[in-house]
Amino acid sequence: MNKVSASNRLLAINNYFYRRGGAEAIFLEHMALFDEIGWDVVPFAMQHPDNQASPWSDYFVSEIEYGRESGLLTKLAQAGKIIYSFEAQRSLKALLEKTRPQIAHAHNVYHHLSPAIFSTLHAAGVPTVMTVHDLKLACPAYKMLVDGQVCEACRGGRIHNVVRRRCIKGSLALSTLVALETAVHRGLGLYRNKIDRLVLPSRFYREKLIEWGWPPEKLVYVPNFIEPPKASDMEEGDYFLYVGRLAPEKGLPTLVQAAALAGVRLVIAGTGPEEAALRALAENSTAPVHFAGYVSGRALHDLIGGAKALVLPSEWYENAPVSVLEAYALGRPVIGTAIGGIPELVRDRQTGMLAAVADAPDLARAIGAMADLTAQERAALGAEGKAWVAKDFSASVYRQRMLELYASLGVDV
């Protein structure tokens, strides 16, 4: 692709400017893709000690970390910023006057930058796109999950249910704050009226937002992407693998039970709040379970490349897990539960296998069926996934889709 004019300037927006999680990875890689073709990419984020260096960091908003101990006045100030950050508006306005971008692309902004920034962008006449990484624009609790069960009680504007059910960490105060936040944002139309397009990485999320009242013409499906590693031919080991956060919605107790029923070795890579409980469960399990901790880079590639299959046992509305694409890029099949965007990425008996949600016997069936295949048959499933990634989930395909989206909003690309 030819270099574009230096006049092309992208304002890239996210709460954090370091690789904190999956949303941040997409945000940073999106910036890099446009930098590669000559765009001037300007970040806007919150100040944080782990941030990457940037000549624009003086415009970042002051740091907020909600999990830290603080006094009453600080908590009240933070609550105000969750709902509407005037500081973010002031900082962004100054940055816009300095940089004059042709397009703004936001990722996660709530609680830190706040959607107040969309009013500022709209007033400045900057076309604005936002990638939707979760279901916050529909459900105030963003996971649509209460006490381990999928919940859509707030559909139709009934956001009082987030308070009634204490959806936010079981706290009445936090749930009330989030309900108030949602009411204010919807009343001001900060998402619905100030953003030009929402990017959905899964068709499932697009359909879910339409079900919750979003206009289809504002919702654009653009799947995530991955750059395949240079060396991906590794010898298969004797284990199944989970990679990700050790959180309640990930279905890991079900996975440990399924591994025991199927009689297979399981490796769990990641950290999170459920680690201690999972270790206790694993100690009483008949399956050999190894906790690898946080793994990244080449070590992660080696771990995925040596697995019989990656297993994604989620019990919530997953969006479009990049871990599935990582497994395919490394030539490995995937076993996933039939929920959220997972079935879009796992073609049953073609690139992997699907299992029922929160059903240890059925997950064990899928794992057992995968284990019963020959190594060559598993490699064939992985090869199909690898070819699919190269065709539909490459960085170049993603960038071209984004350029077409930007062009549809009047940007000269």
Set down the secondary structure blueprint.
Elements: E1 9-13, H1 22-36, E2 40-44, H2 72-83, H3 86-99, E3 103-106, H4 116-123, E4 128-131, E5 145-146, E6 149-150, H5 160-164, H6 172-188, E7 197-200, H7 203-211, E8 219-221, E9 240-243, H8 252-262, E10 266-269, H9 275-283, E11 289-293, H10 297-305, E12 309-312, H11 322-329, E13 334-337, H12 342-345, E14 352-355, H13 360-372, H14 375-392, H15 395-408
Parallel strand pairs: 1-2, 1-3, 3-4, 4-7, 7-8, 9-10, 9-12, 10-11, 12-13, 13-14
Antiparallel strand pairs: 5-6
Helix pairs in contact: 3-4, 8-13, 11-14
**Fourth-level CATH superfamily of the largest domain:** Glycogen Phosphorylase B
Largest sheet: 6 strands, parallel
- Tell me the fraction of residues in β-strands, as a range: 5-15%
Per DSSP E runs of 2 or more residues, the count of β-strands stands at: 14
CATH topology of the largest domain: Rossmann fold
CATH classification, class level of the largest domain = Alpha Beta
**Category from helices, strands and their pairing:** alpha/beta
Mind explaining what this structure looks like?
This protein has a six-stranded parallel β-sheet, with helices on both faces. It has a six-stranded parallel β-sheet with strand order 11-10-9-12-13-14, sandwiched between helices. A two-stranded antiparallel ribbon has the order 5-6. Mean pLDDT is 92; it is low at 1-6 and 66-73. 40% of the residues lie in helices and 13% in strands. The chain folds into two domains: 9-137 and 191-225 and 394-408, Rossmann fold (3-Layer(aba) Sandwich); 240-392, Rossmann fold (3-Layer(aba) Sandwich). It has 413 residues and is an alpha/beta fold. Helix 3 (86-99) packs parallel to helix 4 (116-123). The longest helix is centred in the last third of the chain and has 18 residues, at 375-392. The protein has 15 helices and 14 strands.
